[in-house]
Design brief:
It is a single chain. The protein is of the alpha/beta class. It has 14 helices and 15 strands. Helix content is about 40%, strand content about 15%. α9 links the parallel β7 and β8. α4 runs parallel beside α11. The longest helix has 22 residues. The protein is globular, with a radius of gyration of 22 Å. The structure holds ligand PLZ. The ligand Cc1ncc(COP(=O)(O)O)c(CNCCCC(=O)O)c1O binds next to α5. Ligand PLZ binds next to α5. It comes from Tsukamurella paurometabola (Corynebacterium paurometabolum). It is an enzyme of class 2 (transferase). Keywords: Aminotransferase, Pyridoxal phosphate, Transferase. Pathway: Amino-acid degradation; 4-aminobutanoate degradation.
Length: about 450
């Protein structure tokens, strides 16, 4: 069934409504408490504290109803209180919250593995392992690739983001804030040029996907040698690095080279997975079938769960006990995931994501023609972004980007920024957001861009 917004129902009023300045008094009091209790290294992009959330809105502790265009960084695709997820969580918790799958296993873990083996690209024999965070999934995908190939080298890309653990920091490109002063980092990680069509063209490079892949492959072969590479890991659309959509042909060329050289091709779909890009997984767009796919974020309606799903011959190469962790595939998170997957299926959220994207791109492309500060409008499905630049140039404008996000927030819309140059505004609405609320948020964003760039 293709979702029309008429078929969506909500618990909270789907409205943008400010009843205090932001932050309000209760948020201010919580911020004071936080200063004495929480380490300063943990940032928050929004100065208000959530009290409730549903569909496309977050209600703060002062009663302000904000439109959420962030989904908690691409997590609450089914909303932050999907009733089916909430009921499944409560029911499971009443039986048991934890036994540790490595001690006393339970069906929920197996059922999630079966669903992911069926849902992920490729009809080959697959196996799944569940963890808690995206970084943990990435770490374990690399462990499997190194064991299965007997090789050490791992290839990552410019603008990549893979996590905040030691190995995933090594794989991540941007130093501030993710890596600065946290080294030394894991060895045998090599960074190659990414296909970044907007900036490749601006730099006078051939922005064609096959040409970009040839540049990367040439560097891999000269710097490492194909027979020394355990894995290539890449986000099919780069998230934190700036919602960078590689040119058509780039991913298939890399995947083909990996296959020819016995290199494990890992698609990091932590941010692109589970309907976000208009398909269940972003790899589907060009028919790329990864050897291993890492997943998290949208998988379980907000509960912490991550996974690797991959070729059975790779994952079953690991010795018994070689993969695991205390909380991996927590039963409550597994119950949430099964419920969230049902919601995504019943509401056809891949189709809803495509509709959200079409609506957003149309408005932002029209605005780009009007104002001179939008260098690029890009993305797929409900993973859309604009890159802000100085008028008439491709020079990143991070200050303007921050000003736009601040103006949008002051008007009651939560917007996230990203990008290697800090000049990308990204739209990650819950996929259950209604058209009216989305349109209101887009109007606020357009106004913020016009005002900030005037
Ligand atoms: C592609 C991709 N791989 C891996 C990860 C890591 O997932 P974890 O669940 O945050 O560990 C991400 C997490 N992205 C948001 C991180 C935000 C922040 O920490 O400031 C991702 O996008």
């Amino acid at each position: 069934m293709t979702t029309t917004t008429a078929s969506l129902s909500y618990r909270l009023p789907q409205v943008r409504n400010l009843v205090t300045a932001l932050p309000g008094p209760e948020s201010a009091r919580l911020a004071e408490r936080r200063r004495s209790a929480v380490a300063g290294g943990v940032g928050s992009s929004v100065p208000v504290y959530a009290a409730d959330a549903d569909g496309g809105v977050i209600v703060d502790v002062d009663g302000n109803s904000l439109i959420d265009l962030g989904s908690g960084i691409a997590v609450t695709s089914v909303g932050a209180s999907d009733p089916r997820v909430a009921d499944a969580v409560a029911a499971q918790a009443r039986h048991f919250t934890h036994t540790c799958f490595m001690v006393t296993p339970y069906e929920g873990y197996v059922a999630v593995a079966e669903r992911l083996n069926a849902l992920t690209p490729g009809d080959h024999d697959k196996r799944t392992v569940l963890f808690n965070s995206g970084a943990e999934a990435v770490e374990n995908a690399i462990k499997v690739a190194r064991l299965a190939t007997g090789r050490d080298a791992v290839v990552a890309f410019d603008h990549a983001y893979h996590g905040r653990t030691n190995l995933t920091m090594a794989l991540t490109a941007k130093t501030m804030p993710y890596k600065k002063d946290f080294g030394p980092f894991a060895p045998e990680v090599y960074r190659m040029p990414m296909s970044y069509p907007y900036r490749d063209a601006a730099a006078g490079l051939d922005a064609d996907g096959a040409a970009a892949a040839a540049r990367a492959i040439s560097q891999i072969e000269k710097q490492i040698g194909g027979d020394a590479v355990a894995a290539i890991i890449i986000e099919p659309i780069q998230g934190e690095g700036g919602f960078i959509v590689p040119a058509p042909g780039f991913l298939p060329a890399l995947a083909a080279w990996a296959k020819e050289n016995g290199v494990v091709f890992i698609a990091d779909e932590v941010q692109t997975g589970f309907a976000r890009t208009g398909a269940w997984f972003a790899c589907e767009d060009e028919g790329v079938v990864p050897d291993i796919i890492t997943m998290a974020k949208g998988i379980a309606g907000g509960m912490p769960l991550s996974a690797i799903t991959g070729r059975a011959d790779l994952l079953d190469a690991v010795h018994a006990g070689g993969l695991g962790g205390t909380y991996g595939g927590n039963p409550v998170a597994c119950a949430a995931a099964l419920a969230a997957l049902d919601t995504m299926t019943d509401l056809d959220l891949p189709a809803r994501a495509r509709a959200i994207g079409a609506r957003s791109v149309a408005r932002l492309s029209a605005l780009a023609d009007e104002v001179g500060v939008i260098g690029d409008v890009r993305g797929r499905g409900a993973m859309i972004a604009i890159e802000l630049v100085r008028p008439g140039t491709s020079e990143p404008d991070a200050e303007l980007t921050r000003a736009i996000a601040a103006k949008a927030l002051a008007a009651g819309v939560v917007i996230l920024t990203c990008g290697t140059y800090g000049n990308v505004i990204r739209l990650l609405p819950p996929l259950v957001i209604g058209d009216d609320l989305l349109d209101d948020a887009l109007t606020v964003l357009e106004t913020a861009i016009r005002e900030a760039s005037a």
